[in-house]
Structure formats: C-alpha cells, structure tokens
C-alpha cells in the first residue's frame, strides 16, 4: 500500500512558508480521501486551519503546547464537509528532522481519539514538515481504526509546478546504468522522479501506445493502461507492439506485453474496460499523471472531472490530420 498526500500549489506554498518560521507552528490540514482498488490511499489536501496565536500555551523553536480550542473548531468543520483532519506541525530549521519526538507521540496518544470522535473520520493522520533549501521534507503516519499504521510515503505537488517529494525516511533508489545519458542530460533527481511516478494512459491505440513506449524508455516504471477495444487489422499499422498475429486480442494487454519486453521491471496494470465506468476510472486513483489518448468525448469528459475531483493532472493527446500537426491540450487539475 502506497499513501500519497496531494497538495495544490497554493496549499504547498502556504505550508512551505510556514515551515520556514523560526518557531514551531501547528494546525489541522483538512483532506479528502480516495481509496484505490489496489489498496493505495490518496489524501487530497483541501485547506489548512492554523492554530490561532492566542491558543498557544507555549511556542518555541523546539516545542509547543496548545489549548484544545486551537484545533477543535477545525474538527467540527471536518465533520461538516466530510474531510479527514490531519494533525500538522513543523520542526523548524533547514537541518531539522521531521521525525516525531517522544513528546509528539504522547500528543498523538492524547488527541487521536478526540480527532476521530469530533470529526467522524475513519483515520487519525499526522504530518510533520521541516524546511529545506530546495523546498520541504516531511514524515507522516496514517493510523487506522483497527490499530494498524502506515507511513505517508510521498507528497505530490500539483499546479504550475509538479514536484514529487518522498518522505524523509525513504531511501533514494539506485538509477540503472541504462539511463546514464538521461542522467547526464537532466540530472539524477529527474531520473529518480520518473522512476517513482505513477502514470495512467487511457487509450492504447496509435497515440497511447506511442506515449507509453516513450515513457517507459525514459524510465517510467509504474503504468496503468486502460482501453476497452481489441486490436483490428487496420490498427496494426499504428499500434506500437502489435502484429497481425495478435489481431482480436485486447489492446491494453498487447501493449503491456510489448512494454514488459522493453522493461522487465515495469509494474503495469492493464485494464480492458471503458473509462466511463466508475469501476474502471477508479483504477486511475493511484496515478500522479494521466495521459488521455482516447478519441471519444465521453472519455474526455470523465477524465476532465477526474482531474478536478482528485487533483491529478490530465494531459489530453491526439493527432489532428490535415496539417499533419499534433495538438496537446492540458486539462488543469486546478
């Protein structure tokens, strides 16, 4: 199970600026929640409710104490709008560690039941952020009602800037030697991000199959492919990885086999169904970015709404015959 916290650009900047204060700062981050069929969870940031200054009993660079009126109103708001309240605070300093202290653990024990009771939320979630010269670092934890726990693994920033931030405790994966030239061109950070991104492709025909192959060759290693159609004879001239011998087979499965031959370490979920079905669309919940390569307007409408509801960037791709020019329309998730 992978837990991702999604923050829109304004919310990310608000948290980043607060993390740079010299004293600890706390608040409640209100978030939506989306459960993926594979068990992944996406927490969708909706807004920060900062603790008012008069609710701080103590506030220093290395500790704070807060009266309950500093956060209880935010729990009532969470219940009213059906949000998950995330208990948030900072550990200041660019060399600070956003790991929970013994005092932080004691606070979690004291307020976790209150957070669930007052908000009606299924989870108790914590988030600690520290500043860095190039942004922020963080740790977070999801506590389930049955006593189970899971870390917040990644933070996905969307808007004018897209940025994937792995948790403070995560180890940077080694970059395979095959990407040596890419690393020289773009640097190791971009290559590591490509390897960590979850990408969805809706439509596995002439456009989608080309996009998928290029992404895999660039280093993307987590794909969800969606296409309800089977390969026809006329598709063979356009669909990457297709041959006359696989006519009649599902396009998504054909493309998956082709991509796995290129990158055996690829994690690929091939879905043969229409994206206009809710069950199918939910397969895209784990994705950070979705490429819309479908040629039907109903599918595009679903992806547009999907982008808005889940703050997932959708890039709509297509080929316009006439001037033999390509158009790319980005449907903003903001």
Number of helices: 9
Q: Give the ordered list of helices and strands.
A: EHEEEEHEHEEEEEHHEHEHEHEHEE
Poorly predicted regions: none
Radius of gyration: 22 Å
Strand content: 25-35%
Task: Please describe the structure with a list of short key phrases separated by commas or semicolons.
single chain, nine-stranded mixed sheet, six-stranded mixed sheet, 334 residues, 9 helices, alpha/beta
Task: Summarize, please.
It contains nine helices and 17 strands. The model has no long low-confidence stretch (mean pLDDT 92).
Account of the protein in words:
The chain is an alpha/beta fold. About 30% of the residues lie in helices and about 30% in strands. It has 9 helices and 17 strands. The chain has a 9-stranded mixed beta sheet. Strands 14-13-12-15-16-17 form a 6-stranded mixed beta sheet, with helices on both faces. It has a two-stranded antiparallel sheet with strand order 4-5. Helix 6 runs parallel beside helix 7. The longest helix has 18 residues, at about 100-120. The two termini are about 25 Å apart. The mean pLDDT is about 90.
């Amino acid at each position: 199970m992978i837990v991702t916290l999604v923050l829109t650009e304004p919310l990310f900047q608000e948290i980043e600026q607060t993390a740079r204060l010299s004293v600890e700062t706390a608040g409640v981050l209100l978030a939506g929640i989306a459960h993926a069929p594979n068990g992944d969870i996406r927490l969708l940031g909706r807004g920060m409710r900062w603790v008012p200054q008069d609710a701080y009993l103590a506030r220093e660079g290395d500790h704070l104490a807060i009266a309950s009126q500093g956060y209880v109103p935010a729990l009532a708001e969470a219940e009213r709008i059906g949000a998950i309240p995330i208990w948030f605070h900072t550990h200041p300093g660019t060399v600070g560690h956003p790991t929970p202290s013994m005092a932080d653990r004691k606070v979690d024990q004291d307020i976790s039941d209150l957070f669930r009771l007052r908000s009606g939320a299924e989870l108790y979630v914590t988030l600690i952020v520290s500043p860095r010269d190039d942004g922020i670092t963080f740790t977070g934890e999801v506590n389930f009602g049955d006593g189970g726990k899971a870390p917040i693994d990644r933070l996905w920033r969307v808007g004018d800037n897209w940025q994937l931030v792995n948790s403070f405790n995560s180890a940077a994966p080694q970059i395979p030697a095959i990407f040596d030239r890419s690393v020289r061109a773009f640097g190791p950070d971009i290559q590591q991000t490509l390897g960590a991104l979850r990408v969805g492709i809706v439509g596995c025909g002439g456009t989608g199959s080309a996009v998928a192959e290029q992404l895999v060759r660039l280093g993307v290693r987590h794909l969800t492919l969606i296409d309800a159609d089977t390969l026809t004879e006329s598709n063979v001239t356009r669909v990457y990885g297709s041959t006359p011998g696989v006519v009649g087979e599902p396009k998504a499965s054909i493309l998956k086999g082709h991509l796995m031959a290129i990158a055996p370490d690829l994690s690929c979920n091939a879905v043969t169904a229409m994206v206009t079905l809710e069950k199918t669309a939910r397969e895209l919940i784990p994705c950070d970015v979705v490429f819309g390569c479908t040629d039907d307007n109903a599918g595009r409408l679903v992806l547009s709404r999907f982008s808005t509801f889940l703050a997932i960037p959708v890039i709509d791709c297509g080929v316009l015959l006439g001037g033999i020019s390509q158009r790319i329309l980005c449907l903003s998730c903001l």
